[in-house]
Amino acid sequence: MAISTRDKRGRATSELRPEQLYPLVRTIAEEGKPGHPESISVREFDKARAATGHDDAPSAKAICQRLADRDGKAMGWRRVKEIAFDETASIEHVERRRRASAPARYLSERGVYFALRLIAKRLDVKTMTPGEYDDERQVALKEERKRDRPRPLLAQLLPTANQIEQLFLSGDDDDDDDQDVGAAWDRALEVAELEPRAQLRDQRRRRGRLEESLPLIEAIHIFAELNGRLPSKTDLNEFGEKADVQLEAIRKPYRDVLREAIAYRQALGHNGPTELPRPEGGAGGNAPRAPIAAPAPGSIPGVARRLSKGRTRYARDELIAAIQAYLEDLDGGRPTQKGYGRYAVKNRLPATKNFAKHGGWKALLVEARITV
Q: Which of 14, 244, 280, 287 has its CA 20 to 30 A from that of 334?
């Protein structure tokens, strides 16, 4: 269940809520050490992430830190496993108790403003998730320790994400114990004059706007303009390679496609060329082919780049945007990979085969739900 993103430095950053980490630990442990998952060590767990297809999941150390108490003390790995494998444990109750420890001393809104602004400046971002904050906080503290300061200053000035969340939850009525901690983080971002996390979702959707294959009729039109003739199938494929564009699949007799392209060009005011290419493999089919002119690679806007062996056609953000479109269409129904596959074919979205290099269906589904 790979549920991390990459920050601007290329590091994995967890976007999971604390209560989602326990089932994640159990899943990886059961798959990585079948028979004795409760005894999985920190090192074994970290290795099992990639071996079981969860390579973007947080490390054991990162999970323990993410489950720190309000004083910033990390939860022990043994305790994490106890909770994860306790069938009778209420995760909500465990989380309430974890958050009920003493708040960070001297933490105020002014301190939150300083901490969030400092980390945002280091990351060069206008908003961030709790996981991104904690990850960069650890980097900052590590850098300070390397400078051999006897009393690290940043450790006192940078509370954990959990401590910040609890500051904005403290003072609420008992009925609000289960309130969304995410809302507290959003209030902290507001205090720090940073953008709300909704901006992350909007930015992701803008980055993930899906590009489409180049329609055949449009490709033939561009080919005719540059080459003064209509293309054969082989010509058109070479044209796509040179322009580095993914062409729409041919689903009807190619000569019918050419006739439609001629009509399309005539509607645009272009009267030629109209001579259909000779059938390939027929008489004269072995004659030397004229050189093919094509646009510069990747220069046609809004068109997907050509799919080549060993290359993933869609970026992670594009896949998440596609899954989010599927979830919205379900309107509360149960999402499945097969269901998405049917939806993708119908709506010309990325196929499920693109999921493997980005952690798989489960990983992308979790992240799509988090950022909706």
A: 14
Tokens of 355: 């999921």
At 287, the amino acid letter reads A
**Ramachandran bin of 332, using left for φ above 0, alpha for ψ from -120 to 50, beta for the remaining angles:** left
* Region 226-231 average pLDDT: 93
- Condensed to tens digits (0 to 9), the pLDDT of residues 255-269 reads 888 998 898 888 888
Does the pTM exceed 0.70?
Answer: no
DSSP characters over 81-112: HHHHH-TT--HHHHHHHHHTSPPPTT--HHHH
- 22 in the same domain as 102: yes
Residue 173, classified by CB atoms within 10 Å of its CB into exposed (0-12), middle (13-18) or buried (19+), is exposed
φ/ψ bin of 132: left (φ > 0), alpha (ψ from -120 to 50), beta (otherwise): alpha
What is residue 153's predicted lDDT score, i.e. its pLDDT? 65
Residues 130 and 165 in one domain: yes
pLDDT at residue 223, as a whole number: 93
Residues listed for the chain: 372
pLDDT at residue 339, rounded to an integer = 87
Amino acid sitting at position 359: G
Residue range 25-50: average pLDDT?
Answer: 89
pLDDT at residue 11, rounded to an integer: 44
- Cβ neighbourhood burial of 174 (10 Å; 0-12, 13-18, 19+): exposed
**Closest to 115 (Cα-Cα) out of 188, 62, 11:** 188
Is 251 among the domain residues?
Answer: yes
Cβ–Cβ < 8 Å for 166, 103: yes
Domain count, the chain: 3
Instruction: Please check whether residues 178 and 41 belong to one and the same domain.
Output: yes
pLDDT at position 106, please? 61
Over range 87-96, report the average pLDDT.
67
